[in-house]
Design a protein that fits this description.
Length: 65
């Protein structure tokens, strides 16, 4: 799924994101608004993972949609 589709389906995806990454706050998810870079940064911050791993998780999540 590309970023345009993610942005278009954002409200539906918010719940799935919270389910997958429980440490993200509602504000984290709201501010991300389809921005993969921001989301990867928040995953890196909340889970203490490397930037590359965070980006991979975001890509994998998008591929599952």
């Amino acid at each position: 799924m590309n970023e345009d589709r993610i942005q278009g389906n954002w409200k539906q995806l918010k719940g799935k994101m919270k389910s997958q990454w429980g440490r993200l706050t509602d504000n984290d998810v709201t501010y991300a608004e389809g921005n993969a870079e921001y989301l990867a940064g928040k995953l890196q911050e909340r889970y203490g993972i490397a930037r590359d791993e965070a980006k991979k998780q975001v890509r994998d999540f998008a591929d599952q949609l």
